[in-house]
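Below is one record:
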Amino acid sequence: MEFLDIRDKNGNPTGEVKERSLVHADGDIHGTSHVWIVRKNEKGSYDLLLQKRSENKDAFPGCYDISSAGHLPAGQDYLSSALRELEEELGIHAESADLQFAGKFPISFAREFHGKIFRDEEIAFVYIYDHPVEIDHLTLQKEEVEEVQWFDLEETYQQCSQHRDKFCVPLGGLQLVRQFIKSNGNTIKE
């Protein structure tokens, strides 16, 4: 069983801890860390590495999502959770200095998956990872990730609002990535 800290609207722990399935059944606020892997492409714009979620996932099975993301287990902070998820899901061992904080945003929705209502009330912290990544050298966590693929940032942004059956990328996070690149694009590696 996975236990999560219940958090306030700013992402701070309240002191209450609950089992993950109850958090989603009750719609409690909890924390998640999102790592977006970005690179400059040959056209002079930017690409995102997105993962295709496993068909077994409890929400958005088979959809393309953030490069790496996950819930904060009880007692863990956002940055250490981001680093752990990056290694678990993609096999990328990164250090704290390798991630750049892009901001935080709330996620709020209720939707049915596998015949059950899934309530999601999150405070997501967004990090950027811009070190070179070769897809063929990644070690994917098969129970979480079916595959990964590079997508053009702006094309993905346009498609995300129209093709929610293909992309489940949270638009708030994608907007933070776009703002980060607009402000810091000259520092992103190719």
Notes: The chain has four helices and nine strands. Helices lie at 20-26, 78-90, 153-160, 171-184. Residues 171-184 form the longest helix (14 residues).
